[in-house]
Specification:
It is a single chain. With 195 residues, this protein is mainly α. 83% of the residues lie in helices and 0% in strands. Helix 1 runs antiparallel to helix 2. The model has no long low-confidence stretch (mean pLDDT 82).
Length: 195
């Protein structure tokens, strides 16, 4: 088993173990073993100095590698968050587009309803005025029963009388047309018998 070396201020997990940890662990074992076999204090001090410098360099390297890994993890997390936010933004944009179309449709329907309401108001007012006029006319007739009613050319009764005359003339022309067609038919038959 290899010990995971954790420098101060750097968070490391067992899965973060690298070749450098293996090298450092093996180096410490070899150095300790070699140090025990050496009898000279001066050599031991030299070995300690060399080991200390080498461990410091490896520790710095492990720290930098771990920081880089941590930065990559954070970047991956940030990218994941950015992608999620982008997806959410796209969904919101699609919803906004749909909402804008609904708003336009509702505005059209609202304008149509306003137009219909205005037409209904005018029609109601017209019918109210017509009813009032009719009542005024009836009141006047009751007050003046002997006075003869006179209609202008634009009044409804006058238009009805005029339309009767026009319809009568139309029927008269239809009768003349029918008789002419019958006479023409008889003449054709006589001509065909002669030939």
């Amino acid at each position: 088993s290899v010990r995971v070396w954790c420098p101060k201020g750097v968070k490391r997990l067992p899965k973060d173990i690298t070749e450098l940890d293996v090298v450092l662990s093996e180096f410490e074992k070899i150095a300790a073993d070699y140090k025990q076999r050496v009898d000279s204090n001066t050599c031991r001090k030299a070995i300690d100095g060399f080991c200390s410098g080498f461990k410091d360099q490896l520790a710095d390297l492990i720290t930098e590698v771990q920081k880089l890994k941590n930065v990559k993890r954070k970047n991956a997390k940030v990218l994941t968050d950015i992608n999620k936010k982008r997806q959410q933004l796209l969904q919101v944009c699609e919803e906004l587009t749909g909402t804008e179309q609904q708003l336009k449709q509702l505005q059209r329907e609202y304008a149509q309803l306003q137009e219909r309401e205005s037409s209904l108001r005018h029609a109601t007012q017209f019918l109210t005025d017509l009813k009032e006029l009719q009542q005024n006319c009836l009141d006047y007739r009751e007050e003046n029963p002997k006075e003869k009613a006179v209609y202008g050319t634009s009044s409804l009764p006058a238009l009805l009388v005029e339309s009767r005359r026009i319809l009568g003339a139309e029927r008269h022309f239809q009768n003349i047309n029918t008789r002419l067609q019958e006479a023409l038919h008889v003449q054709r038959e006589e001509l065909s018998k002669k030939h």
